[in-house]
Design a protein that fits this description.
The chain is mainly alpha-helical. Helix content is 83%, strand content 0%. The chain contains four helices and no strands. The longest helix is centred in the C-terminal third of the chain and has 28 residues.
Length: 82
């Protein structure tokens, strides 16, 4: 099979996409891992010390809000800079 200009252009059209979509996909990796760590360690802390459940849960929610804010920033930035 010989490669001609038309086959190369067709392959280029199939590969091209929106870089913002790729950037957001990469930006969601960190918050996804962060949420898993926050809730995993929060549940472990509550299991070890049940009387401190209210304090641990409060800190879990604050940490979740901060991590999700980073995810929203990662969602907005590609739209602003493209």
């Amino acid at each position: 099979m010989s490669l001609t200009a038309s086959t190369l252009l067709a392959a280029d059209d199939a590969i091209s996409g929106n870089i913002g979509t790729v950037a957001y996909g990469i930006a969601t990796l960190g918050p996804g891992i962060g949420v898993g760590i926050i809730f995993g360690l929060g549940i472990q802390a509550i299991a070890r010390q049940p009387e401190a459940e209210q304090v641990a849960f409060r800190y879990m929610l604050i940490g979740f809000a901060v991590v999700e804010a980073l995810a929203l920033i990662g969602f907005v930035v590609p739209f602003v800079f493209t």
